[in-house]
Amino acid sequence: MKKTFLIALFCAAGMTLFAQTNTRRYPPSSVQRSWQRDYPNRDNDAWEYRNNQWHTKYYDRDHNNREVHVYYDRYGRRVYSQTQWDRNDLPDRVRNRIRSRYRTENYSAYRVERPGGRFYFQIRLGNNRLLYLDERGRETRNR
Fold this sequence. Notes:
By secondary structure, the protein is α+β, with helices and mostly antiparallel strands. It is built from 3 helices and 7 strands. Strands 1-2-3-4-5-6-7 form a 7-stranded antiparallel sheet, covered by helices on one side.
């Protein structure tokens, strides 16, 4: 009897877990409306919910198919977007700062944009250290 009860409990827990995962596949309508307003010509049905944010990505055809990650809160407010950035497209001051201060050419760059047009660059050095630099090459804490 105990084994039957435990098996039933395990099955019910598994079904509940699966149902929660399945309902989280598509964002709420507030997020979908914001996505359509912010990116009207982009189709996307791949969403992920993590850390209380809805995340999706697309490839920007207008800029060499750069990978763009977009994050929304559950109310449909865009939290930030993160775009892969070619090192050659970085402002000279940012490239010079990395070269002179960290003496490396082994890094990846992302442009992080927040609502209101504020942006900064997230630099991941070869040793996985993260830096945040503004367009003038100054370190910032805008995470």
